[in-house]
Amino acid sequence: MGYTKVYNLYGGIFDWKNQSQIVVNHLNLPTDSIHAYSKVWSLWLHKGIKVYE
Fold first, then answer.
1. What is the secondary structure of 1-53 as a DSSP string?
2. Looking at the domain assignment, is residue 4 inside a domain?
3. Residue 49: phi, psi to the nearest 5?
4. Which of 6, 31, 40, 43 has its CA 20 to 30 A from that of 49?
5. Tally of domains in the chain
6. pLDDT band at 53 (very low <50, low <70, confident <90, very high)
C-alpha cells in the first residue's frame, strides 16, 4: 500500500499510558481516558481513566 514508516507499539496503548506518554483524543488534545475493553483487560492499565464505552 506504499507505507514506509510502520511501527509496532509494543505493549499497546496500555503500556504507552503506563509509561506516562501522551495520548490524544479525536480533537488532537491530550487525554487521560483510555478504552479499557473490559474489566479483565483493564487490570493492565495502571494510569489514566478507564473507559468501557
1. ---------TTHHHHHHHTT---B-TTS-B--EEE--STTGGGG--SSEEE--
2. no
3. -100, 120
4. 6
5. 1
6. confident
